[in-house]
Automatic annotation (TrEMBL):
InterPro entries: ODR-4-like. The lineage of its organism: Eukaryota, Metazoa, Chordata, Craniata, Vertebrata. May play a role in the trafficking of a subset of G-protein coupled receptors. The gene is Odr4. Keywords: Membrane, Transmembrane, Transmembrane helix. This is Protein odr-4 homolog.
Length: 446
């Protein structure tokens, strides 16, 4: 038996309107949430048209001109705008009857391309029991016939399986929202061996280490530690048949472990560094979970991923901005101080779910509104955009010498390097002994 997709009723009208404009086809993304029992589709978003596409409409209809890279780039941009719990569930295509045969092959190819593109950016690993089926929705523009199939993106040889596509009103009206604020103070060393001070690569490596800390953190939901296998809404009243959005909000505190447990063995590593990157600030994170007996572990997993994604996405956006403004071939750097883009949230009509975006300080509200229309095909009012947090920063600090001390410092460094080479074993042993005594003192003094 195939998977069931419960779909927000308004999506049917959206797809119908798109089908009247098809010449000869249109593609898009399906956005929603996976669960063990069924999947939920809360939005469908068409692929933004390219300017040259208007000129390419001459000749017989064909799918050979389908721009796979354009579609996967759109998916990556959209995924940044999704809070925890939401993801790109699949792709859709509305096409004329002449393209019906080729549509399914094109959809299959797109599903795997989109998943490959999105997985490259993730700093977390999917859980073993996680749903890996993604939807391929095919709609005939003439007959309006809907065919939904799924493919397992973890299996490159996966064949199509039939799936049910069912519309439902007020799908997310009773979903649960979770929110937290995470204070960030991450110090990332820049290795001297890193070519051309590859800031982006070093930052990603540092965030990778930090993401492991988030994965191992303790999450208090409304002040309580709950067993992961219990129901999130256990003991709470349920409002069945309520078609009006009613927010059930859970406040979450994140307790990050400061050190490894006593059973873990650690070693000291000495590395030569050319500088450091410091990420500082407080980030606002949100996640949304379906109301069909969700487990605590589902909610915590969704929030963990939002914490990791939001900081990773901001750094990615910052480096893209730096490349646009300064070029990709920047070899030398002085001390640089950058402000990370701030997160803002925008409500979805008829739902408690809010989508997000990131705003640099000099960006006008009109630019954000244009981005929502282009990426999510959703008009947004300026007054509905809520900036959620204060400024977070990136401080890039090279190791430099004072100009007046340069001549004196060079021979001193040369002697020091020679001395270190002669006594490296003693120096490393002494350093490890000192660190061990410090950690031992801290442990017993606590």
């Amino acid at each position: 038996m195939g998977r069931t997709y419960l779909v927000e009723e308004g999506i049917g009208q959206y797809l119908t309107e798109l089908s009247t404009k098809v010449k000869p086809y249109v593609t898009g993304l399906l956005i929603g949430q996976c669960s063990p029992q069924r999947d939920y589709v809360i939005r469908a978003v068409r692929t933004p048209p390219k300017e040259q596409q208007q000129e390419e409409s001459v000749g017989p209809p064909k799918l050979a001109s389908l721009d796979e890279e354009w579609i996967t780039t759109h998916a990556s941009q959209v995924s940044r705008m999704l809070p925890g719990g939401l993801l790109v569930l699949g792709v859709f295509m509305i096409a004329t009857p002449e393209l019906a045969k080729d549509s399914q092959n094109a959809l299959r190819k797109l599903i795997f391309s989109v998943e490959k593109s999105l997985s490259k950016r993730r700093l977390w690993e999917p859980a073993e029991e996680e749903v890996s089926d993604r939807a391929a929705l095919q709609i005939c523009s003439a007959t309006r016939k809907v065919v939904c199939r799924t493919y397992d993106v973890q299996d490159p040889k996966s064949s199509a399986k039939p799936a049910d596509w069912k519309y439902q009103s007020a799908l997310t009206a009773s979903w649960v929202a979770l929110g937290c604020t995470v204070n960030v103070n991450i110090h990332i060393p820049l290795l001297a061996t890193s070519p051309n001070h590859d800031l982006e690569k070093n930052t990603k490596n540092g965030l990778n280490r930090w993401s492991k800390q988030i994965e191992d953190s303790v999450f208090l939901i409304n002040g309580q530690v709950k067993d992961e296998d219990t129901e999130l809404l256990e003991g709470q009243k349920k409002f069945r048949g309520n078609t009006q959005p009613s927010t059930q909000f859970s406040d979450v505190k994140v307790l990050t472990q400061l050190c490894q447990g006593t059973s873990a063995r650690s070693t000291a590593t000495v590395q030569v560094c050319s500088g450091s990157i410091n990420l500082r600030g407080a980030v606002k994170c949100r996640a949304y979970i379906h109301s069909n007996k969700p487990k605590v572990k589902e909610a915590i997993q969704a929030l963990k991923r939002d914490i990791i994604n939001t900081l990773s996405d901001r750094c990615e956006i910052l480096f893209e901005d730096l490349i646009l403004n300064e070029g990709p071939q920047k070899k030398n750097f002085g001390r640089e101080y950058h402000v990370l883009p701030q997160r803002l949230f925008v409500p979805v009509a008829g739902s408690i779910v809010m989508l997000s975006d990131y705003k640099f300080g000099d960006e006008a509200a009109g630019e954000i509104q244009e981005r929502f229309v282009e990426m999510l095909d959703q008009p947004v009012q300026a007054e509905d955009m809520h900036i959620a947090e204060d400024i977070s920063t990136v401080d890039i600090c090279p190791v430099t010498d004072s100009p007046s001390d340069t001549q004196q410092a060079q021979p001193t460094k040369a002697k020091l390097v020679l001395k270190l080479q002669q006594n490296m074993g003693l120096v490393v042993a002494a350093a490890v002994a000192v660190l061990a005594s410090i950690f031992s003192f801290n442990y017993f003094s606590d």
